[in-house]
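seq:
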Amino acid sequence: MNVLMKTSMGDIELELFEKEAPETVANFIGYVRDGFYKNTIFHRIIDNFMVQGGGFTEDFVQKETKAPIKNEADNQISNKKGTIAMARTSNPHSATCQFFINSKDNDFLDFKAPTPMHYGYCVFGKVVNGIEVIEKMSKVETGNRGFHQDVPVENVVITDIEILN
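struct:
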């Protein structure tokens, strides 16, 4: 299944890995169908690492989420450049709506063992068109906002995500 993420910096087409991360993809698609991601922002961007979004409004208000999902990082898909993975807290099974797209190979984020420290981050898709948009996002100016670091000075907005097939 593919989705089109429309952003203020350009469009990104993602192929989702339904077989390899079925619960994660179903969760993400549920949020897409609910219109949850419309007008949310990429709230954390670190050049040469990743761009993270999907949980905050343009006014920097954190959105209410559904229950956390099981971490499927043991699917053995590596956090390579252009892959999309679920963001989470230090609890391996705490992912809800937030995701990040790797702007370089980040295999240190991969599953190593079923322990809190080594569980990793579940990759559930990859960019098939629009990697240049991620590269452009990676270069935006960032700063601090409240307790948050690496926040774009000017909002990078997800205007919508639509299912293509």
